[in-house]
């Protein structure tokens, strides 16, 4: 087995036919003898410039709404596919009136009558803090329309910073594959959905957590997972992925440090609000439990096609999620080689997305950095992104149809159902490719240079301690200690 060049980055244009074809726009693939170091346009800097540019294009896409469509009825913001929750909730959730999230209620006609038509903010604590900071930074003078515009702009600036953090973390998680972060930076779904809601802070914290885990800092990774979970619920699933991976590798001390860090940081953020404003704090969890079947979910598709309201949607969604997670756990313990952390993180979050009662279009942001790390191939990534663009357009045009009255402008329900199917199939396709890479590790592009798990931290190159299949018990060519990589060639026995 021959050693590879540890410091030389992997060049997608030399391994990926789609990347090579796309590079023709800027002069073609880089030569094998090209000098890769010493230039100020290092990979991370290029990625940062690209993600800022794409984010700006996404802001331009929202221009029709910024200028007028957010403020002139519902239909126009849907027909222009530029809807955002941010300006609407500035007023609707009391930020324009100086109300304090979780402590003050805002008027809500759908609220329980016992609260006098008032309700609490339905977002997790750290997301609520993000919204409040943006409100503090928003000028308090001018018309309400001007203030809503400024609130969106302030949030856009803060969310852009989150997008940069995500792209940089992806570039640095796999040390020899920084250019894979261009998948994140150029993702059309990132540009289109970045300012629809407040998902990027949680995604950024989860991305930093994965970077810290890859640097063998499990306690700090856990702290960041806890903070990410305080912003959105889904990052807690990363602990499930780490649990089964550490089980197979026998790395219980590392997992314990991560779980402890996550629990403590989550409690530090949530504890004060739980103590002083219990009713406001629990609103997010009650809302999530009581929320009916909603847009984008497989359950809505089944309900609309069968005419069955599916009253037990919570049970169905929870049961399917648990079954999928159990299947992922069994896959981890029976695969011929231990899956990479990024692969398992992508699969478990995708399972949650597919089984959930609702699929808002911005949920794709959760998966973009995980997909770039789990399956860094442009063809597969773009197939999935194409499906998400179809869904992005489908939901807005469907809402335009439902708000157009007798005009029937937009996408009828049958068209929207087709958009849901396209989204589900595109996500399932990417999941299937990742599962194939796990079952046939020689097909995994990240491992072609002899790497084991560049995002694995203490798991990288570790021996198995517990497996469930004879195939998994076969000797493995793990990376030598110290992170040195080897080249296995094409021998499928390794």
Automatic annotation (TrEMBL):
<keyword id="KW-1133">Transmembrane helix</keyword>
<dbReference type="GO" id="GO:0016758">
    <property type="term" value="F:hexosyltransferase activity"/>
</dbReference>
<keyword id="KW-0808">Transferase</keyword>
<keyword id="KW-0472">Membrane</keyword>
<keyword id="KW-0812">Transmembrane</keyword>
<comment type="similarity">
    <text>Belongs to the glycosyltransferase 87 family.</text>
</comment>
<dbReference type="InterPro" id="IPR018584">
    <property type="entry name" value="GT87"/>
</dbReference>
<dbReference type="GO" id="GO:0005886">
    <property type="term" value="C:plasma membrane"/>
</dbReference>
<dbReference type="Pfam" id="PF09594">
    <property type="entry name" value="GT87"/>
</dbReference>
<protein>
    <submittedName>
        <fullName>Uncharacterized protein</fullName>
    </submittedName>
</protein>
<keyword id="KW-1003">Cell membrane</keyword>
<dbReference type="InterPro" id="IPR016570">
    <property type="entry name" value="UCP010361"/>
</dbReference>
């Amino acid at each position: 087995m021959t050693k590879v060049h540890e410091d030389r980055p992997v060049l997608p244009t030399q391994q990926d036919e789609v990347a090579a074809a796309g590079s023709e726009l800027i002069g073609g693939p880089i030569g094998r003898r090209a000098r890769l170091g010493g230039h100020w346009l290092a990979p991370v800097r290029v990625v940062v410039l690209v993600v800022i540019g794409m984010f700006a294009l996404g802001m331009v896409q929202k221009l029709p709404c910024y200028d007028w469509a957010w403020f002139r009825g519902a239909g126009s913001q849907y027909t222009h596919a530029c809807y955002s929750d941010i300006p609407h909730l500035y007023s609707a959730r009391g930020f324009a009136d100086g109300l304090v999230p979780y402590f003050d209620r805002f008027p809500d006609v759908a609220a329980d009558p016992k609260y006098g038509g008032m309700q609490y903010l339905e977002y997790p604590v750290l997301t609520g803090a993000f919204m409040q900071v943006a409100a503090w930074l928003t000028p308090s003078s001018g018309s309400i329309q001007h203030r809503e515009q400024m609130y969106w702009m302030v949030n856009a600036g803060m969310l852009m910073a989150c997008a940069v953090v995500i792209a940089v973390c992806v570039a640095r998680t796999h040390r020899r594959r920084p250019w894979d972060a261009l998948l994140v930076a150029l993702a059309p779904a990132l540009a289109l959905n970045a300012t629809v809601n407040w998902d990027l802070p949680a995604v950024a914290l989860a991305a930093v957590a994965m970077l810290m885990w890859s640097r063998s800092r499990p306690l700090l990774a856990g702290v960041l997972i806890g903070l990410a979970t305080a912003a959105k619920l889904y990052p807690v699933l990363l602990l499930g992925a780490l649990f089964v991976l550490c089980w197979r590798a026998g790395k219980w001390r590392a997992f314990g440090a991560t779980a402890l860090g996550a629990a403590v940081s989550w409690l530090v953020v949530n504890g004060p609000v739980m103590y002083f404003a219990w009713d406001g704090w629990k609103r997010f969890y009650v809302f999530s439990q009581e929320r009916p079947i909603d847009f984008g979910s497989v359950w809505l598709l089944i309900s609309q096609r069968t005419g069955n309201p599916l009253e037990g949607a919570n049970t169905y969604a929870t049961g399917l999620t648990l079954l999928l997670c159990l299947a992922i756990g069994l896959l981890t313990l029976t695969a011929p080689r231990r899956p990479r952390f990024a692969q398992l993180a992508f699969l478990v979050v995708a399972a949650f997305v597919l089984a959930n009662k609702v699929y808002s279009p911005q949920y794709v942001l959760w998966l973009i950095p995980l997909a770039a790390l789990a399956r860094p191939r442009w063809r597969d990534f773009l197939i999935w992104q194409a499906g998400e663009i179809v869904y992005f357009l489908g939901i807005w045009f469907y809402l335009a149809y439902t708000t157009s009255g007798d005009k029937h402008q937009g996408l009828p329900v049958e068209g929207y159902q087709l958009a849901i199917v396209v989204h589900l199939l595109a996500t399932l396709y990417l999941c299937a490719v990742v599962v194939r890479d796990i079952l046939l590790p020689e097909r995994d592009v990240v491992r072609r240079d002899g790497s084991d798990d560049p995002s694995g931290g203490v798991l990288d190159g570790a021996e198995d301690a517990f497996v469930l299949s004879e195939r998994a018990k076969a000797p493995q060519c793990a990376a030598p200690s110290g992170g040195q990589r080897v080249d296995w060639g094409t021998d499928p026995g390794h």
